[in-house]
């Protein structure tokens, strides 16, 4: 199969590799769509400490189930392995001769040919954090596309219990980034009637904005230096837009609210945007940082102290976040739109990454198709 391997800063290589074989409790997926995440852009530049070359990235994806490993069981069921080939993409099923089904997320039945969105967070299931229902804190967690091969390839192997059936394979590739947005709004503790400022009109920022709207925020300010992306904000719930190159965002928010925003979300991860959250918040406000573009950041600590601000990190979603994202996508509440999403051949992966970094970066979301 073809795999698009990140081998160093600003370099992808196309490798011919053996198709992976699913192990116990795993499924083999033929990749259908795989989105590019902002964290992968910093990884591509060699600026993300979690990603080490050579690596097959890709963690926002859908795939078609083409084979099961033995005992491919998910939460809530024992599952069954398979031995027969359903004819899907020429992949041979493996196992001990059971029926052509397995258990996916929540114990749902999976069959050969099913289209699934994948939760790429793989936790151990037995540590104190997992037992408390907080797998995102698991010290032994692994993430598909970071710690194990991801979806920038023709095939990928994942645990069966990470798979959620979806009706639309392109829309399904939005479940993971939507879960990130839902988590950001939850970490910011957005509540009914809040004023929320979101820095960054990439897809995570836009989905964070949407999540804040769904939680009842009444004033939603989107901040970005890209006017084309700012213009997309109204479709996600923005009531106001601000370009910091032209206007004082903190002053604008004070005029809107009389004191400052209740909540702020940084979906960029730069010193300027993290400090921006500090600047726009009222005393007692809370911010969530989900952007990862810079590792070290210096903000005005004395202002944080005097205003008694709260800062919450936001890296991984809960199981409930992912299930809600899946439901919002699969019921059509959130669906792809050509105004902000573009599909490219996966063979053009390096050009797609360069476009997102160097411009024009017209689309907040690029999705690759093998």
Report on this model:
With 370 residues, the protein is α/β, with parallel strands linked by helices. Helix content is 25%, strand content 26%. The protein has helices at residues 38-44, 128-131, 169-172, 175-187, 203-214, 227-230, 249-257, 271-280, 301-307, 319-330, 349-358; strands at residues 2-8, 11-16, 26-35, 60-68, 101-103, 109-111, 115-118, 121-122, 142-143, 155-159, 163-165, 195-199, 219-223, 240-242, 261-266, 281-289, 310-313, 341-345, 365-369. The strands form 5 sheets. Strands 3, 4, 7, 10, 11, 18 and 19 form a 7-stranded mixed sheet that branches. Strands 14-13-12-15-16-17 form a 6-stranded parallel sheet, sandwiched between helices. Helix 9 (301-307) links the parallel strand 16 and strand 17. The longest helix is centred in the middle third of the chain and has 13 residues, at 175-187. The radius of gyration is 21 Å and the shape is globular.
Key descriptive features of the protein:
six-stranded parallel β-sheet, seven-stranded mixed β-sheet, 370 residues, 25% helix
